[in-house]
Amino acid sequence: MDRKRRTAAAGQAWQIYSETLQPEVPGFWERFRAVPRMLKSVLRGQYKGMSFGTLGLLALGLVYIISPIDAIPDVIPIAGIADDTGLALWLAAVLVKSAGDFVMWERSGRPTVIVGEPID
């Protein structure tokens, strides 16, 4: 990963961390505990804040991390572990951000939109 991407990834991780420290926003542990509820709601079609495509990418990322087959083999020092670590950080960032949005959705009473109905 080049320097610009690492800097951008670190900036995004810091932004998400800083967001969890704000008073009205869900904290990290609340988000962590909300992940299973969020996944169930996405799979049931109740929560539209995360697409099935994003859910699929998260699943593929998890399979890649667990799988012994890597794009960069782990026997190569540093680089072999860096790709898995980078992917794990991306997975964690997406889950923490999405779980925060989900908790806010839950707090707002789980509003739903009925297709074809006007919204005031």
TrEMBL record:
It comes from the Bacteria. Its main location: membrane. It is found in: Endomembrane system. It is a multi-pass membrane protein. Pfam families: DUF1232. InterPro entries: DUF1232. The chain crosses the membrane at residues 47-67. Residues 55-90 form the DUF1232 domain. This is DUF1232 domain-containing protein. Keywords: Membrane, Transmembrane, Transmembrane helix.
